[in-house]
Specification:
alpha/beta, 8-stranded mixed β-sheet, 14 helices, elongated, binds guanosine-5'-triphosphate, binds magnesium ion
């Protein structure tokens, strides 16, 4: 997970360290020059009285030049200025862009880094790379937590007032929608809730069979119509079934692809109008990078989403989609899909994500 981004961050760290090393060498040279100048000035100083000289020697212990230089380096602090950041931030911006972090998010990160680091005191010996990476982590956590939402808490509360709860899943084809519905169904059942699935992707015949297979494996009821049927009617039937049987949740699949994008959006709008979902989950795959982020924006604008589940994090070397998608849509990430098994669903946690990006 995130191998590419981790490697890039490692090489960024190295580069900044090299720049710093060069500067420290230059700094020592400057100190040597200062020392030389002091010596020359001293030679021209008038001779002091013998007694005074002895006195001053007694007060000050003799320190060698080498110790003096290292003492100065240890003591001295450097103020991080804009020029220093301009030297290293473009490299970091490039790494983030290459790692599929959306442009507007990179801009935000970069300007926050500047704002928080310019003027910061750095002791000599303290690594600039450490300071920048630490601040980057703080900024990322901040960005990731902006739309924080506890899905379990929502579930526990919503069910107190309404039954069945209607959750629909939207997103383009092949991103993991059907698998994620099965994962979430299992998660809800593990917590003692009852679930019915609705085969709302009627555009592709195979989609109904696929969801049916999951339903059989999980032992949950599936409501389906024939391929080509109206998905709003399928979901409506599932709601009626759930209501009559006292089932807690209806999880509805929808098509990810139709003849045109307009057909797809029209269909989703109709589903929303007819079945009035309590929660609309956008599903996309983390490996799609900026495409996934743009699709999230499009679905949110066109039909409205309440949150995102990002799948295939286990196969994503970059991680930028996870960093960007909530920022761009202003809606929370609910879960990460991290494999093909039913339990490969991780509840969103910014620390969990950051550990995977910055940890060993
Ligand atoms: N590695 C990995 N694979 C996943 C994950 N989620 C889903 N998949 C796989 O992605 C493929 C597509 O998943 P589906 O659930 O069929 O996706 P869909 O969006 O329903 O696709 P269509 O119905 O074809 O539009 C399957 O092979 C899944 O096993 C995940 O988190 N990690
Ligand atoms: Mg599907």
């Amino acid at each position: 997970m995130f191998k590419f981004l981790k490697e890039k961050l490692k090489s960024f760290r190295k580069k900044v360290e090299e720049i710093e090393k060069k500067e420290e060498v230059k700094h020592i040279e400057e100190l040597k020059e200062e020392k030389k100048e002091v010596k020359e000035v001293k030679l021209e100083e008038p001779k002091i009285k013998k007694e005074e000289k002895v006195d001053s020697l007694e007060k000050k212990p003799k320190i060698g030049f080498k110790e003096k230089v290292s003492a100065l380096i240890l003591k001295r602090e450097v103020i991080i200025d804009e020029g220093k950041l301009d030297e290293i931030l473009p490299e970091l911006e490039m790494i983030l862009l290459e790692s599929d972090v959306a442009f507007e998010v990179v801009e935000e990160i970069s300007s926050l880094l500047k704002e928080r680091l310019v003027g910061r005191r750095k002791k000599i010996g303290e690594k600039l790379a450490d300071i920048v990476i630490e601040e980057l982590k703080i900024i990322l956590k901040d960005i990731l937590d902006r739309n924080k939402f506890d899905f379990d808490e929502y579930i526990n509360n919503v069910i107190k007032n309404k039954k069945p709860v209607n959750i629909i899943f939207v997103g383009v084809n092949g991103t993991g929608k059907t698998t994620t519905i099965a994962k979430l169904a299992k998660r809800l059942m593990d917590r003692g809730y009852s679930v019915v699935l609705a085969a709302g992707d009627t555009f592709r015949a195979g989609a109904i069979e696929q969801l049916e297979e999951h339903a059989n494996r999980l032992g949950v009821k599936l409501i389906k119509h024939k391929p080509g049927a109206d998905p709003a009617a399928v979901i409506y039937d599932a709601l009626m079934h759930a209501e009559s049987k006292g089932i807690d949740f209806v999880l509805s699949d929808t098509a990810g692809r139709m003849h045109t994008k307009k057909n797809l959006i029209d269909q989703l709008e109709k589903i929303k109008r007819v079945t009035e979902p309590d929660f609309t989950i956008f599903v996309d795959e983390s490996i799609a990078g900026n495409d996934a982020v743009e699709r999230a924006r499009m679905f949110n604008d066109a039909v409205g989403i309440d949150g995102t589940i990002l799948t295939k994090l286990d196969a994503d070397p970059k991680g930028g989609t996870a960093i960007s998608i909530s920022y761009v849509t202003n809606k929370p990430i609910l879960f990460f899909g991290v494999g093909q098994g039913y339990d490969d669903l991780v509840k969103f946690d910014s620390d969990w994500l950051l550990d995977r990006i910055f940890g060993q």
